Amino acid sequence: MRLRTTSALAGVAALTLLTGCGAADMTKQASPFANAQGAKTVTLSVQSWVGAQANVAVAQYLLEHELGYRVDTVQVDEVPAWDALSQGRVDAILEDWGHPEQEQRYVEDKKTIAPGGDLGVTGHIGWFVPTYFAKKHPDVTNWKNLNKYADQLRTAESGDKGQLMDGSPSYVTNDKALVENLNLDYKVVFAGSEAAQITQIQQFAKEKKPFLTYWYTPQWLFEKVPMTEVKLPPYKEGCDADPAKVACAYPVTELQKYLNADFAENGGDAAQFLKNFKWTTEDQNQVSLMIAEQKLRPEEAAKKWVDSHESVWKQWLP
């Protein structure tokens, strides 16, 4: 469930997408490279958060430079990406945070999507406050005390309530339900994107202002702005089954890859490479930091990582 923006479109390919619950049909347009006769091509879905961009950047670099493929990348929101993957408009999603409804529909029932294995990265979504604020007010790290600090966390956007800052409205989150079901005096305010959320967090930190934000690990920003998690009611299997009644923390998730089922079976070296692709949180953060903080182009960041980690990626080659 996810949450995270620079555009990672290649060539002239693009899908113009609507956010929401996936009702819009995002799959009428395909990559201009898709099904090109005799061409070795792969189309990868790239989500808007920088960790996902890091995965795709490295996979694309190696597919092109080591295996001789032409790679197209298309930015698709989380849920519509599953529709596109099912219909073969993209070949792979390299970072999924858990979408049980889509997994049941496409993996179990229709069998149009195949699991691609673990990414190797463990993801966790939570609510965070800056560590400088948590040190001054240690009890803020328990959700039961959040209302005590609502006045200090108000903004112009949240009015007379405390602000819980979220990123993109397209992220699948439980935050509005949590605020209501835990009787918290807060309002969810969307920054608009991961990039906008990062900018706001950095500005708050520069001014040493308190804030409460939806955030996630792995994420390179923790190295620049230390944050401490607010403990929500413990996650238990099934506690988030009804989105309207959620009153528990987000789970810890082993991030997964998914491939179009036909591509998984008939995609040759490219499919096998993507199944083999597995790296660590530290690896992903290295590339993410180069893209987001050092402002390298994704291809440049990927090359720098590839040049210094040959023993890792050599194991992914078929």
Short synopsis of the structure:
This protein has 318 residues and is α/β, with parallel strands linked by helices. It has 11 helices and 9 strands.
Task: Walk me through the structure.
The protein has helices at residues 50-65, 78-86, 100-109, 131-136, 175-181, 194-206, 261-266, 268-276, 281-292, 298-308, 310-313; strands at 41-46, 70-75, 92-96, 113-130, 162-166, 186-190, 212-217, 227-230, 252-260. The two termini are 31 Å apart. The longest helix has 16 residues, at 50-65. Helix 5 (175-181) links the parallel strand 5 (162-166) and strand 6 (186-190). It contains 11 helices and 9 strands. Helices cover 32% and strands 20% of the residues. Strands 1, 2, 3, 4, 5, 6, 7, 8 and 9 form a 9-stranded mixed sheet that branches. With 318 residues, it is of the alpha/beta class.
What are the SSEs and their pairings?
Blueprint: E1 41-46, H1 50-65, E2 70-75, H2 78-86, E3 92-96, H3 100-109, E4 113-130, H4 131-136, E5 162-166, H5 175-181, E6 186-190, H6 194-206, E7 212-217, E8 227-230, E9 252-260, H7 261-266, H8 268-276, H9 281-292, H10 298-308, H11 310-313
Parallel strand pairs: 1-2, 1-3, 5-6, 5-7
Antiparallel strand pairs: 3-9, 4-7, 4-8, 4-9
Helix pairs in contact: 1-9, 1-10, 9-10
Portion in helices: 25-40%
As a percent range, the share of strand residues is 15-25%
Number of helical segments? Answer: 11
Q: Give me the strand/helix succession.
A: EHEHEHEHEHEHEEEHHHHH
Unreliable spans: 1-37
Biggest sheet: strands, sense, closure? Answer: 9 strands, mixed
Which value, in Å, is the CA radius of gyration? 20 Å
Number of strands: 9
Shape: globular
Instruction: Report how far the terminal alpha carbons are from each other.
Output: 31 Å
Helix/strand/pairing class, anyone? alpha/beta
**Global mean pLDDT:** 88
